[in-house]
Amino acid sequence: MTISLKTQFPLTLPVIDFSSRDLKPETLEWDSVRARVRKALEEYGCFEALFDGASVELRKALFEASEEAFDLPLETKQSTKSDKLYKGYVGQVPTIPLYEGMGFDGADNPEVVDDMTHKLWPQGNVTFSKNVQSFAEKLIELDVKVRTMIMESFGLEKYIDEHLNSAKNHFRFFKYRGLDENTEEKLGLDPHIDRHFLTILCQNDVVDGLEIKAKDGEEWIKAKPSQDSSFLVIAGASLHVLLNGGVFPPLHRVIITGKKDRHAAGLFLLPKEGLIINAPEEMVDDEHPRLYKPFDFEAYFKFTYTDTKKRDLSALKTYCSL
Ligand SMILES: O=C(O)CCC(=O)C(=O)O
Ligand SMILES: [Fe+2]
């Protein structure tokens, strides 16, 4: 009799602990975490990071702030819209009616956060801007550790600073409306790969819904956080191209099953405008021929913008493989 491994052992995402105060470069602990990060990003394209930098209180405050912001009148939320792709408010999209998102670039810059806050609350909202900023700072700390480890693990030490400086951060809140009485589970967000370098996500504890597609299978793995202090780190297409395929950008989606609203927040590390991404020579040899043409993130983003079906690995290959 064959036993289905799938039902016996549903896959779970790797969990990696970043919470030690001694987690510093050039220590045994750093090397061991780095090896796990590399393996997770090769095999799953993502992992759950335990990181106690953002306290339970801070998360609670952040999601309260997010609720407050999404409760504002539509017109106010729309005032954060900008003509740049992916900035400001997105909502009322017919194919994903439960979804709303709001975000801005440069969350570590107090002026930027204040500007966004004033668009939402013309009289100001100090609690909101303070919480967003502290939260973003913690996520940035984790991002620097993760991307430094990734570069080191591929022997790209000499490019670490250049790579860290080649990204800007975009902070984003999401709200997915809970289901009505008679609605069955619904798509909150279409399956997609992230197009940036790296994404760090955090969701409110009561409502899960994010699912990650396993690399070599059909299974959708539920990305339910195992602890309060965890974040989900996801590799994006830009990192995949930079490392000549060395990390896997996983397909993920959001499915809403319950009546409660789901709130999430995340930091997206985007290639800076004008950056052309090209895998360093160190990533290319006879066994690993160069996979992609020089890659312009803005152009690729536009390519995937209107047609959500283009947000997967095979469309990336069609777009720029050699
Ligand atoms: O809501 C989430 O947890 C995921 C959002 C997401 O995947 C994205 O914005 O790229
Ligand atoms: Fe995503």
TrEMBL record:
PROSITE patterns: FE2OG_OXY (PS51471). Residues 163-271 form the Fe2OG dioxygenase domain. It comes from the Eukaryota. Keywords: Iron, Metal-binding, Oxidoreductase. It holds the Pfam family DIOX_N. Gene3D superfamilies: B-lactam Antibiotic, Isopenicillin N Synthase, Chain. GO terms for molecular function: metal ion binding; oxidoreductase activity. Belongs to the iron/ascorbate-dependent oxidoreductase family. This is Fe2OG dioxygenase domain-containing protein. It comes from Eutrema salsugineum (Saltwater cress). The lineage of its organism: Eukaryota, Viridiplantae, Streptophyta, Embryophyta, Tracheophyta.
